[in-house]
Amino acid sequence: MASEDELNLLVIVMDVNPIWWGQQAQREPEFTLSKCLDAVMVMGNSHMAMTTTNRLAVISSHFQDSHFLYPCKNWTGGDGAWDGTMDEAPYCGDGKYELLSVANNVVAEEMKRVMSTTEMKGNSTDTLLAGSLAKALCYIHRMTKELEAGQEMKSRILVIKTAEDCARQYMNFMNVIFAAQKQNILIDACVLDSDSGLLQQACDITGGLYLKIPQKIALAQYLLWVFLPDLEQRPQLVLPPPVHVDYRAACFCHRNLIEIGYVCSVCLSSWGALSDPVHTGEWGGPRANLLHGLCLLTFILLMLGFLPGVQLVEGVFDVHHDGLVVILQT
Amino acid sequence: MEAPLLLFLRVQLQCKNLHEYLKELSPEILDKLYNHPATCLAVYRELPALAKNYVMRMLFLDHPLPQAALALWVKKDSQKYHDECVSVLTSLRLWHTQQLQGGLQGNILNPIFKDNLRIALLGGGKAWSDEGSSIGPDRHARDVGSLDRYAMERWEVILHFMVGSPNAAVSQDLAQLLSQAGLMRSDPGEAPCITSAGFQFLLLDTSSQLWYFTLQYLNTAQTRGMDLVEILSFLFQLSFSTLGRDYSVEGMSESLLTFLQHLREFGLVFQRKRKSRRYYPTRLAITLAAGITSKPSSSSNPMDVAPGTVDTSFIVVETNYRIYAYTSSELQIALVALFSEMLYRFPNVVVGTVTRESVQQAIANGITAQQIIHFLRTRAHPIMLKETPVVPSTITDQIRLWELERDRLQFTEGVLYNQFLSQADFEVLRDRAQGLGCLVWQNVPHRVMVVTQQGHSEVKKFWKRQKSST
Fold first, then answer.
1. Which of B74, B144, B242 to mutate to test the interface with A (most CBs of A within 10 A)?
2. Going by DSSP bridges, is the β-strand pair A186-191/A210-212 parallel, antiparallel, or unpaired?
3. B351 exposure class (CB count in 10 Å sphere: 0-12, 13-18, 19+)
4. ipTM
5. What is the pTM assigned to this prediction?
6. How confident is the model over A43-63, as pLDDT tens digits?
7. Which among B121, B123, B298 has CB closest to A46?
């Protein structure tokens, strides 16, 4: 059993893409955004009911920004202490544990506010998932800083994804994933509609669970059965096995997922085509310094040994960073 | 070698936790207890983590689950955790076995427990207590800081009374409770004085003290004519309340109101006057829930540190056996002086050393080394908390060694048999005693043996028969 000083923070990131949810309401009227929010709140309540040291945060992920549904700025209590700053006491009126009742009311209010006030700027219809994950990581980092002496905190992020992946967010996503891995933060993913390669990679790298739900109505049951057990219990329970991950990288020039491409030896960025120079740099003939080139080649081969499933095919010179370009195959 | 009788008995303070207490209750009382969402939530929080997951999974199932399916939930090498969970859930009557249609055995959650846990998590059902909206906002509202001060002040009066400070006075009820709990001994006509169990109680951390005290109170509750179920439910409800909010006393029965007055004396709630219609739970009441899981080896509970009140993390222990206690509270100084030798005293610091004599004297009073170490660990200064281990291992090891020094000798009471006339007599009696299992020690060349007290009468009868037959 975890000791009393170990806090367990669960951050739930909900994808509230209005376009997807609007279409969903027409496809399957029995599973709407409010039902999904109910399931998420059940999961959050169960998590907080487990011990006094469990903490919760809920973030909604929209087009251009992400909002904290709980805890939010209007409500200052974080550990159950009542500061008396709210005008009216949260009156629960039924048998629910008071802390959970307050949390649920706050989440519902904030969600209504977010959905009704966010405006549509620009024409991108993709959810800003990488941004929400980054916000979650910042929140976790802040909570870790605010711990008292002798306390430790274990955190994980649960992503509930609905809309399609956005290839434009690839770089930011990968940065977030590696930052989470460094901080030992698990990323779990619960996917409602279509498989997401980015989230599969995230779960694989950080050690979390990826699950595509066959029946959306049973979302609450899946959340409680699969995603509620925390880090100590997961090795003991039988949970869904890891899926085969698509590790293709997205190229920097067009953001397509590529299997064969060009890699700059200096910054290790992958490119789909040589004929589209993005950075300043002249395209000239091969450089004179062959020894320089051979050193770079061995360096790259060593580096490539760490990337999974990648093999060297052919090498060519380029002047993007005055370096060597090699062609990879995943 | 059979177990020797210890001549020197030490009374150990038994700190039960919630589950052990509940297992002792009868099944009818347990079922009545589970009728309140607060109790279900408190019991749920006490379960081992794997059992919590099991309960969560079964919370929304209306049909029994085959036991074979349950066994498939865990991996092969975690089978012992599964067995532990099954035994805990069964002993607390949280689930029943039911015969399924195929003749298999199935498990289903106790329906009362299931319904009330669902209410606690998701809503519905009756409110736990009437919210304060009917009496309006409090004109004399108290903030968290003053509540903390009040709570610590009341609790310290009790501890001061136990130590014997002259200006600490508690009610007759409370003094009687302390005597019944075995913490104090009151000879007729004299003032009560503390027992060795009382010393051990003083060294515990606040949450364990609270819980021990509450358990003793509950044990005497039935003799006072109070309803155990009602009191326990109210206690759990209190432990889940929000600090700083006031609650109304509407709808509370007579026995609950009496109970509230007792809690007021312990410092668990604050009420401006006896007839006030609202009360504020203090941090101690909320700590009660956290203190239920009494884990003596855990480091300081964050609930113990009440901001702005008497600091309960004030001890610095150095590897040269010096203790610096940054406190001016008489009680804390008296506690530290129980097992250390005081050297200097300043307005805000007390300096002492832990010596062999001081520790062994404490042990002679009935305190164990584990309790001393637990005391140091739970009151460690935040600077000490940054080190691992919190208390230097030299100190902990040395305290334990000093304790072991007293255990080099074991006393066993017995009866000596000697001056046997022949070796054959000795051997016959010795074999008989060994056969009965009461032989403690023998010395064959000197024809001397020692037999336990209980075995002595048997062996004597045998010897008399032997003598009269030869």
1. B242
2. parallel
3. middle
4. 0.72
5. 0.74
6. 999 998 888 888 899 999 888
7. B121
